[in-house]
Write a structure and sequence with these properties.
- By secondary structure, the chain is α+β, with helices and mostly antiparallel strands.
- It folds into three domains: 134 residues, Galactose-binding domain-like (Jelly Rolls), CATH 2.60.120; 45 residues, no CATH class; 214 residues, Rossmann fold (3-Layer(aba) Sandwich), CATH 3.40.50.150.
- It contains ten helices and 26 strands.
- Strands 1, 2, 5, 6, 8, 9 and 11 form a seven-stranded antiparallel beta sheet that branches. A seven-stranded mixed beta sheet has the order 19-18-17-23-24-26-25, sandwiched between helices.
- Helix 8 packs across helix 9.
- 37% of the residues are buried.
């Protein structure tokens, strides 16, 4: 059973925190290394409507190693903790700034008693004011939990508060400029203009799908640059000398340039080329969608509402030049390949030119829908022959795509 003290409706878990006085105001200070719920209550009833709950938190000390990993969370619950209405993770980078107001918007469909809780995982010692606030809000006021105004001039952003709350709750910082909301994660900034953007950001920045670690300097080839998020993520690595980024479609290419402009300290490493790579050179006009930047192959988008002229180069000769330059600089070459089916032709070209023996590692999203006869076995064969070890993350239930990593061990 939790042992706790009660002060003006505030319940404090004695095993996790102590109540102190600070200038006549009661504060809760978590114990070094303690894990669990430090603060809960008061159980106050509110009518149906929209609200924002706030608690002021300061970081006393931290045991983190600079990785800015979550050190706890605050939440709003009903039914004595049985129903979570809203939660927000706590990160050292935010709490080091001084007293930080943790703001959590929530809604009630019926009159309920709610409470605000504070939880810690032992990685940081936190101080929180016992006094907490729950106030009614409208759809505009809830944006203050990010410290920004409501993005009324940007319909997608304004209509998708929950998407940005998810981003913020997972460590992103948000700001607002004339183009929309800028999301910043681990020193990289970019715009989120669609659900596709956030899907891509989630894969790259939060799930680390394209995170290469090696003891040598690297040159990365980003085949299928899209809006440039993977290129920025990889260029931000201190051991990365250059990123060669290929994107044949105009709309994502322009989006990438806009994102690069937000990152002047990183973008200088990126060589962005508005051309695609394939098994052979070609020029064609294909249907595209004005609203989509992913899931469009060099065959075009079947339900497209516009036409784009795309130029493709054969991958082998292009990669041959990049590899030669990297070798002169004593760097390893890594490939990130996500090009909606063109990976099959690209791999055949690389095999024809004997280049797999000069590539250190690859991460590939391959596409099951490209051909009923093509499969990951066609991609694995030249890698295995060149001495690669493959980690296959393809799942059977995904009808459209799979993911694998491969690192060359035969030197």
């Amino acid at each position: 059973m939790i042992q706790h003290a009660v002060l003006n409706g505030t319940h404090v878990n004695d095993r996790v925190a102590d109540i102190l006085q600070n200038g006549g105001r009661p504060v809760v200070v978590t114990k070094p290394g303690a894990i669990g719920c430090a603060l809960f209550g008061p159980y106050l009833e509110f009518d149906p409507g929209f609200y924002i709950a706030e608690i002021d938190v300061l970081m006393q000390a931290t045991q983190d190693d600079g990785a800015d990993e979550c050190c706890g969370f605050a939440d709003v619950t009903a039914n004595s903790g049985a129903a979570t209405l809203c939660a927000q993770h706590l990160y050292p980078s935010r709490l080091r700034r001084g007293v930080t107001t943790i703001s959590m918007p929530f809604s009630l469909g019926e009159r309920q008693a709610v409470e605000i809780r504070l939880h810690v995982n032992g990685r940081a010692q936190l101080r929180a004011l016992c006094a907490r606030r729950i106030t009614p809000i409208d759809h505009h006021s809830k944006w203050r939990c990010f410290g920004i105004a409501a993005p009324e001039q940007h319909p997608f952003e304004f209509d998708n508060f929950s998407l940005f709350y998810d981003a913020y709750n997972r460590g992103a910082n948000l700001s607002l400029d004339e183009h929309g909301i800028v999301v910043s994660i681990n020193g990289v900034s970019f715009y989120v203009k669609s659900h596709e953007d956030w899907q891509t950001a989630d894969e790259i920045f939060l799930r680390n799908d394209y995170f290469f670690i090696s003891p040598r300097q690297k040159v990365v080839v980003d085949i299928g640059m899209n809006a440039g998020l993977a290129s920025l993520f990889m260029a931000n690595g201190p051991s990365v000398l250059r990123v060669h980024s290929f994107e044949p479609f105009a709309a994502p290419y322009q989006r990438a340039l806009q994102n690069f402009a937000l990152n002047p300290g990183i973008a200088g490493k990126i060589m962005a080329i508005r051309r695609g790579l394939s098994g052979e050179a070609s020029i064609s006009e294909v249907p595209v969608s004005r609203d989509r930047t992913i899931s469009t192959s060099v065959r075009g988008y079947a339900e497209g509402d516009a036409v784009d002229r795309i130029v493709l180069d054969e991958a082998g000769p292009v990669l041959q030049r990049i590899i030669a330059e990297a070798q002169r600089d004593g760097a390893d070459v890594f490939l990130k390949v996500d090009c909606e089916g063109s990976e099959f032709g690209i791999f055949k070209s690389l095999e024809r030119h004997g280049l797999f023996g000069s590539i250190a590692g690859v991460v590939v999203e391959w596409h099951k829908w490209w051909s009923p006869t093509a499969s990951k076995a066609d991609l694995f064969a030249p890698l295995l022959a060149a001495g690669f070890v493959i980690v296959d993350r393809t799942t059977k239930h995904d009808m459209w795509a799979g993911l694998f990593y491969a690192v060359r061990t035969g030197r």
